[in-house]
């Protein structure tokens, strides 16, 4: 019985003293709609013949139109993110998918609340 008590004391001691530092949480700079997201979406999606408002479908020319396809804080529930992050026949833009870095910026912007900043 004494062996188990000593073992229990040792385990408790190690558990309480093993990790005395704060976890490392990476900091992500705030993503700007005006500087980061607008050029990606309007430059790739809001072009003539695509989502510029001249064809059937919908327009992606400004924040108000873009936010209609976003669920702030929830990238995987946002239609815009779903079509730019997918692989296969439904990926947008259809002729040249966005580079991973741009997809990541859109993801982070949505995760940060999709602010009009």
Task: Show the helix and strand layout.
Blueprint: H1 2-17, H2 33-44, H3 63-67, H4 79-85, H5 100-111
Helix pairs in contact: 2-5
What are the salient characteristics of this protein?
117 residues, mainly alpha
Tell me about this structure.
There is one protein chain. The protein has 117 residues and is mainly alpha-helical. The protein is 44% helix and 0% strand. The protein is built from five helices and no strands. The radius of gyration is 23 Å and the shape is elongated. It starts with a helix and ends in a 6-residue tail after the last helix. The model has no long low-confidence stretch (mean pLDDT 80).
Average pLDDT number: 80
Coarse structural class? mainly alpha
Number of helices: 5
Q: What gross morphology would you assign?
A: elongated
Distance between the termini: 65 Å
Provide the succession of SSEs: HHHHH
Helix content bin? 40-55%
Q: Provide the β-strand percentage band.
A: under 5%
The total count of strands amounts to 0
Q: What low-confidence regions span 5 or more consecutive residues with pLDDT below 50?
A: none
Q: Biggest β-sheet, characterized?
A: none
CA-atom Rg in angstroms: 23 Å
């Amino acid at each position: 019985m004494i062996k188990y008590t000593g073992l229990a004391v040792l385990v408790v001691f190690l558990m309480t003293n093993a990790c005395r530092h704060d976890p490392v949480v990476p900091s992500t700079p705030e993503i700007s709609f005006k500087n980061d997201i607008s050029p990606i979406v309007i430059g790739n999606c809001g072009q003539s013949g695509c989502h510029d408002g001249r064809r059937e479908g919908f327009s992606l020319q400004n924040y108000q139109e873009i936010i209609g396809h976003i669920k702030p804080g929830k990238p995987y529930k946002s239609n815009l993110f779903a079509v730019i992050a997918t692989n296969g026949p439904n990926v947008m833009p259809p002729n040249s998918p966005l580079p991973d870095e741009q997809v990541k910026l859109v993801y982070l912007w949505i995760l940060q609340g999709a602010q009009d900043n």
